[in-house]
Design brief:
Layout: H1 2-19, H2 22-31, H3 33-42, H4 45-56, H5 64-75, H6 77-82, E1 91-92, E2 95-96, H7 107-120, H8 125-142, H9 144-149, H10 155-158, E3 161-165, E4 175-180, H11 187-194, H12 200-206, H13 219-232, E5 245-250, H14 261-277, E6 282-288, H15 292-303, H16 309-312, E7 315-317, H17 360-372
Helix pairs in contact: 2-3, 4-5, 5-7, 5-8, 7-8
Length: 376
């Protein structure tokens, strides 16, 4: 305990020497000449900060330059908050994005989340800060935690997605979201009812609670964002083996050549939102039961450079539904695993994690939204 306190005091003194008011620096230099001479020479601001932030990151090994850029992003948190449409809304993925001394801030998780934005923007600090501001503004307006944990979801939409959690699975495939678009009997009718073109009357006829009508996005979009937010409750941002998740898109019984315009529009919108607001959270995306022709088109786009190698490395496009080379869960239904295993689940829905609750700061915000609406 004493060594920990001593380390904190040491860092505070070094930080003060680098950033403190001139009067306080002069006092330290006159009182502790040997200490201040040694450590003002040894530590520069970037050296101190990158050492602190290198030690806070557990998922990857940062270079000195990368740690320095992360430190710069963390240092800009006050500027980020002051730039927001609503400076009180400082949550991403259920965690508070604020300064170290603010209440409910998990510094290690906060830094991992900010690092994901930084990696996605190729370590460009200015662009990363802009993206974080935009994402916080989007979350303040869209309220994804509400979509995940407060809003009712129609049974027809629930048939389109499953979340599985298998702790013994391969790294960063322990949590998987399954998008089962083949379960839509009539895409046209579904997106007329739940897509952007849905009328209030049609939604009201299927949704018993309407106090969320003022929030943006179609019922389908809010369900899909909610599915992602619920899955994020199961990953551990500081665990190298579980700080990302997998996605499976099953296109069985879906016509890729005559896809419903509503589904196309919704898919395009979801891709845009995920790209901007959920960076570096995907380990692998499996497209399964995809027609051979579409597999060829995908490969052609990759070959001519429309799809980057970085993105391509995360994609697996399969004509069939067999995931056994990548996913080893003994519980997967036979349609997703051709390897003989003991007692597989009859249906993927048997493996769904069921009801989840927001944790920590996310739960605090939800209670404000639900009871006294303090977050405007």
């Amino acid at each position: 305990m004493q060594s920990e306190v001593g380390r904190v005091v040491f860092y505070d003194l070094v930080a003060l020497l680098n950033y403190g008011p001139r009067s306080e620096i002069s006092f330290l230099q006159s009182t502790f000449p040997d200490f201040t001479t040694k450590f003002t020479i040894r530590f520069t601001s970037s050296t101190l900060l990158h050492q602190l932030h290198m030690s806070s990151i557990a998922t990857i090994k940062l270079t000195t330059e990368q740690a320095d850029k992360l430190a710069k992003v963390v240092g800009k948190i006050p500027d980020i908050l002051s730039s927001l449409d609503n400076s009180d809304y400082d949550e991403i993925f259920g965690f508070r994005i604020n300064t170290d001394d603010a209440e409910h801030v998990d510094v290690a998780v906060r830094d991992e989340i900010l690092l994901k934005f930084l990696i996605a923007n190729e370590y460009d600090v200015d662009i990363t800060v802009e993206k974080i501001v935009n994402s916080l503004n989007w979350r303040n307006k869209f309220r994804p935690l509400s979509a995940a944990f407060l809003e009712p979801v129609d049974e027809e939409l629930k048939k389109l997605g499953v979340i599985t959690n298998e702790p013994n699975e391969h790294d960063n495939l322990k949590v998987i979201t399954w998008n089962l678009y083949g379960n839509v009997k009539s895409p046209k009718k579904l997106f007329e009812r739940y897509g952007d073109g849905a009328s209030d009357e049609k939604v009201a006829a299927k949704t018993p609670v309407l106090e969320f009508d003022s929030l943006p996005g179609s019922p389908f979009l809010r369900w899909r964002i909610g599915l992602m937010e619920r899955a994020l409750q199961l990953i551990t941002f500081t665990d190298p083996a579980n700080h990302k998740l997998g996605q499976v898109h099953d296109y069985k019984n879906v016509s890729m050549l005559r896809m419903d315009p509503g589904m196309k529009a919704a898919t395009k919108e979801i891709i845009s939102i995920f790209t901007d607001n959920y960076p570096e959270l995907l380990s692998t995306k499996f497209f399964i039961n995809v027609p051979t022709l579409m597999s060829w088109v995908f490969g052609f786009f990759a070959k001519i450079g429309i799809i980057s190698q970085k993105t391509l490395d995360k994609f697996k496009v399969l004509n069939l539904g067999d995931l056994s080379p990548w996913v080893e869960s003994p519980k997967l239904p036979a349609e997703y695993c051709k390897v003989s295993r003991d007692s597989p689940a009859i249906s993927l829905f048997d493996l769904d994690v069921g009801e989840l609750k927001a944790k920590g700061y996310g739960d605090i915000l939800l209670k404000k939204l639900e009871h006294d609406d303090e977050v405007e």
